[in-house]
Here is the input.
Amino acid sequence: MESILNLISEHREMIYFVLLSVFVGIEVIGGVPTVLHTPLMSGANAIHGVVIVGAIYVMLNVDPTDYLALALGFLAVLLGTLNVVGGFVVTDRMLEMFKKK
Amino acid sequence: MKSALLELSYLIGSVTFIVGLKMMGNPKSARKGNLLGAAGMTLAILGTIFLFEKKTEDGAVVADHVVPGIIYALIFGAILLGTIVGWLTAKKVQMTKMPELVSMFNGMGGACAALIGLMEYEHNLHHTGALATIIAGMVIGTVSFSGSIIAYLKLNGTMKQPIRLPQYNVINTIVMAGVVLFGAWVVMTAPSMTFLYLLFAVAIVYGILFTVPIGGADMPVVISLLNSFTGLAAAFGGFLYDNKIMLTGGILVGSAGTLLTLVMCKAMNRPLSNVIFGAFGGGDAAAGSSSVSGSIKDINVSDTAVLMNYSKKVVIVPGYGLAVAQAQHVIHELETILEERGVEVKYAIHPVAGRMPGHMNVLLAESNVSYDKLVEMEDINPEFSSTDVVLVVGANDVVNPAAHNDPSSPIYGMPILDVENASHIIVNKRSMNAGYAGIENELFFNPKTSMLFGDAKAVLTKLVAEIKSL
Here is the structure.
C-alpha cells in the first residue's frame, strides 16, 4: 500500500499530465458532427505518428557498428514517416473536398 | 540552450496538435487544423534531429558528442523514402479506398512503436519501470500493427468472410491473458532477446486473432479502436523518454480515438463488446428475421425514368454499393438533370453510410454534389412522407425496417432511414443477396417497393440517358 502511495507521489506531475491530456482528448472530439468523423479519425491517425520522434531518438543513440540496430532503426523511422506524411496528406485530401461548395 | 529549445519546439508542437484537432471538428476550419498539426509535427521532428544531445545513464549531457554521419544518412534516407512513398500513395488512392489506407498507415505507426521496443529492450534490462513501459508499448504497437493489416485486407476485399475458429472468444481471451502474463514475466525476469522476439510473435498472433472474426461492416470501429491503441503505444514511448510531445500526441489520440470508437458504435446502436466479441452471423443473432417472405416486384429503367421525371421530390439514399460501383459521378448527373426538370432532389445520409461515418459525404463531395443537398438522418426522416420517389442505391441495412419492428433482428434498435413513408421506393441492387449484416430486408417485399436490378453505374447511366430523351 505504502509503495503504491509513494509511486503516486513520485510521479505526481506525470499523473496530472496524463489525466489532463485524457480530458483534452475527450473535450476536443466531443460534439463533432458525424460528417467529420472520418477525416478526424484520419487526422488523429497522423498525429500518433509522433511516435517517429521516439524512433529518431533511438536511432541517434545507436552504436554505428551494430548493424541489426541500424537496420531496425531505419525501418522504424521509415514506417513512422509513412504514418505521418501519408496520414496528413490523405486527411488533407478528404478535407479539401469539404471546402468547395 | 539546445535542450531548452527542444522543449520549446515540443511545447509548440503539442499545442498545434490540440488546437489542430479542435479545428478539425468544424468543416470551415478543418483543413487549416490539419495543416497546423502537420506544421507542429515537422517542427518536432526537425527539433529532435538537430537539437539532439547525447546523455549518459543518469541524464548528464555528454559534451562534444558527435553523431556518426552514417546515422544521419540513414535517418534522412528513411524520412525521404517514407515521405515520397507516403505522399504518392495518399495522393493517388481512390477516395473509396481511403478507409483501408488509413488502416495501413495506422499499422505503420504501430510497427514503429513495436520496433522502438525491440531496440530499447537490451539497454534497459536493469530498470523494471522502463522495461514495463517498453514491453507495454511494444505489445500494444504490435497488436495494432497486425490488427491493422488484417483490417486492411478485409476492407480491400482480399479477406472476405470473417474467419471464426470454434470457440474463438475463449481462444482469444486465453491468448490475450497469455500475452499479458508473458509480458509481465519478461518485465520481472528480463530474459534474453529470444524471449522478447517470442513475445513479439505472440502479440502479432493476438492482433490477427483479435481482428479476424470481426465482420467487414464493423471494420471502421476496429480501425478507430486500433488507432487509439497506436496512440497509447506512442504515449508509452513518451513515458520511456520522458518526451512530452509523444505523451501529448499519444494520449490525445488514445482518448479521442476511444471516444470516437464509442460514438461510432452508438451510431450503429451496438455496444463495443458486441463488435469485438461478434454478433452478426454468430450464435443467437443468426436466428433473427428468418420469416421474411412475399413477392418482389421488378421495374425497368424506362419506367423508372418516367416515374422520376414526373415527380415533385426525389430522395436518393446512397450506400457503399454506390461507391463500389464508382457511381458517385453518375448520381450527380442524375441529380442535375432532375433538377433541370424542376424535380427537388436531396440525398439522405445515414450516419454509417459508406465504410466509415462521414465517408459518403466525402465521396459525394468528390463528385461535386453540393454540401447542402446532403441531409442527415434526423432531418430527412420527417420529409419522406412528402417524397414521391426514394431511390436506394447500394444501401441495405440502413433502410431495413427490421431495425424498428423485429426485436430478434441483430440490427434491432439501430436508427434507420424511414424510406417506407415515401409514395414509391426504388431499390437498385446487383442481386437479392443480403446486406453486410447478412440479414433479409423486408423493405424489398413492400408493395410500394420496386427492384431495379443491375450494376449501379450501368443502370444509372442508362437512367440518365432515358430521362434526357423524355
In short: The longest helix of chain A spans residues 67-99.
